[in-house]
Amino acid sequence: MDRKVFRFQAEQAGFDKTVKKRIRAYFEENDISRFANTNMVLKTIFIVLLYIVPYILFITGLVTNPWLIFGLWGVMGIATAFAGVNIMHDANHGCYSRYSWVNTFIGHASNLIGIFPAMWKLQHNVLHHTYTNIEGADDDIDAPPILRLSPHDPLKKIHKGQYIYAWFLYMLLSIMRTTVKEFKQIFSYSKKGLIKSKKKTRGYLAELIMWKVIYFGYLIILPSILLPQSVFFFIGCWAFMHLFTGFILSIIFQLAHVMPDCAYPLPNEAGRLEDTWAVHQMYTTTNFATGNKFITWWFGGLNFQVEHHLLSNICHVHYPNLAPIVEKTAKEFGVPYYSQSTFGSALVSHGRMLYKLGRVEVA
């Protein structure tokens, strides 16, 4: 086992407990559930239809023009990304529904858009949410050598250009996840002890193979059988779809953590960090465009990334109302509350961070 385990400071009767107490009071006083509401259900239906309708249009032959078919796949790529951050994301955090079977059902349904929930939960829920921006523990900043997303990664000459080429590499995120990444994760997480037994590892592998057969079967094999276009045409359509998906997903998550304000703490020699877990999240996370209702709706509330990291067991539709509580509490206890005012300013700041990481070496 080579998994790195770090320890935070014990939770104190300060920011940590106060913010939790106030959030609980908000739901109790307003007599509302922390799970999805009617608006969330309606959004779910809309996003699912945004994915299914284009597929039906070309698989039934109602749309035959190759360029229009490509356009429909582009719409499916956008829908895939927003289904991931709105529906699947909440379900795999267990906060879409109060009924665990509903969350499990939606989680398994995410296989139909190419996301294997078991590996996603280990990477995102366990590693990223626990060890945010910690080198060697947070898989979200464990980038290919051509990218440097942490100041503690080795600096290479090629990184000087990453502020230009990184945006194109972001498009490949979804392609890599739906093809090779999840297979690699099964073996990597098994070695690290995140998957507890060889039997469990074999079970995950068999399940992943089954779902990939279904996924590529209905998206590529079935259309190439039913329609006049070749299998290579639909492979191209599939790749085109995932360029949209990958870029959208990458941007949402990179603007939250790879930013000039965000810290990249390192543990001491004993493996301990100097802050509590909740305070650590405040130092390593940034909000953006929280006043933009359009961004909030489409991005599944993940522009309220601070609230998400502190309150990942609460459906994202509540984040805008919870943000003032978190911000007020942070100010009271002298804890940072980072936020970029607009989506555009966040993109510029991320670009500057990529530029800096391509040039500044940490001793």
From TrEMBL:
Q: Which GO terms describe its cellular component?
A: membrane
- Keyword Transmembrane helix in the entry? The reply is yes
Its GO biological process terms? lipid biosynthetic process
Q: Does the keyword Calcium apply?
A: no
An annotated Gene Ontology molecular function: oxidoreductase activity, acting on paired donors, with oxidation of a pair of donors resulting in the reduction of molecular oxygen to two molecules of water
| TM region(s), chain numbering | 40-61, 67-88, 100-120, 164-183, 204-225, 231-253
Q: Which Pfam families match?
A: FA_desaturase (PF00487)
Keywords on this record?
A: Membrane, Transmembrane, Transmembrane helix
**Record domain Fatty acid desaturase: where:** 66-339
| Name of this chain's protein | Fatty acid desaturase
